């Protein structure tokens, strides 16, 4: 059963009156108004989003301090390091870094946050608006969130409550190949070349 539509579309998290005015001036307002009539951006963590997260090994987490000063920081780990922990909540282990703690401090003042997820190999991107909080890495959370076999120092855990999310078109996304995937493909080609060279040598020395 589908959820009733809210009086305020989820896309209003990004489409402020100022943004809508610019959309109207530049001719895109009606397309987004139609989306708003359907409820705006997605709000549930559905199979599409969870499947995308399973492939993600890098993300950008944006926060702002009490004065509104923005800050974006890279977060990474093995594929699937961002995981679904509840109906509307994502979580990931925050590994030790340069110890500036800007994101941590910002979230102490202002829980509003934004996740930008990129998949360069497949030219896909997803934007997630919500609220984030920093919590200690309890044994239960680490059992659920710590990537198996990943050697990194745990600093804390970040839990991200999803308010809305949307996907972008693939325009202008540069196609970049993952280093591990490229190394695996090269290894397969090198093995095949070795086999062909050995077969060629056998054929050369075979009696007519």
Describe the structure.
The chain has 3 domains: 1-41, no CATH class; 42-167, Roll (Pnp Oxidase, Chain A), CATH 2.30.110; 177-208. Helices cover 34% and strands 28% of the residues. It is built from 6 helices and 7 strands. The protein has helices at 17-26, 29-37, 47-55, 102-109, 139-145, 179-205; strands spanning 58-64, 70-76, 83-86, 89-95, 112-119, 124-135, 154-167. It starts with 16 loop residues before the first helix and ends with a helix.
What's the domain count?
3
The total strand number stands at 7
Please indicate the percent range of residues in DSSP E strands (runs of 2 or more).
Answer: 25-35%
Distance, first to last CA: 74 Å
Give, in order, the helices and strands.
HHHEEEEHEEHEH
Q: Can you tell me the CATH superfamily of the largest domain?
A: Electron Transport, Fmn-binding Protein, Chain A
Q: What Rg is obtained from the alpha carbons, in whole angstroms?
A: 23 Å
| Apparent shape | extended
What is the CATH C-level name of the largest domain? Answer: Mainly Beta
Overall pLDDT score: 92
Total of helices: 6
The secondary-structure class comes to alpha+beta
């Amino acid at each position: 059963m589908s959820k009733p539509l809210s009086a305020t579309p989820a896309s209003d998290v990004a489409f402020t009156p100022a943004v809508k005015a610019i959309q109207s001036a530049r001719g895109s307002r009606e397309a987004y108004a139609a989306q708003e009539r359907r409820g705006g951006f997605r709000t549930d963590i559905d199979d599409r989003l969870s499947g995308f997260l399973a492939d993600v090994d890098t993300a950008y987490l944006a926060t702002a301090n009490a004065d509104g000063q923005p800050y974006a920081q890279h977060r990474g780990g093995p594929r699937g390091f961002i995981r679904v922990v509840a109906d509307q909540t994502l979580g990931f282990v925050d590994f030790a870094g340069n110890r500036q703690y800007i994101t941590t401090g910002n979230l102490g003042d202002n829980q509003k946050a934004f996740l930008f997820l990129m998949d360069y190999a497949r030219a896909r991107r997803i934007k997630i608006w919500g609220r984030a909080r920093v919590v200690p890495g309890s044994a239960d959370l680490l059992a659920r969130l710590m990537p198996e076999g990943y050697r990194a120092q745990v600093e804390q855990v970040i839990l991200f409550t999803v308010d809305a999310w949307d996907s972008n078109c693939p325009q202008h996304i540069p196609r970049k190949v993952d280093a591990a995937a490229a190394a695996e493909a090269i290894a397969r080609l090198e093995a095949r070349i070795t086999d062909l060279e050995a077969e060629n040598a056998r054929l050369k020395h075979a009696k007519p």
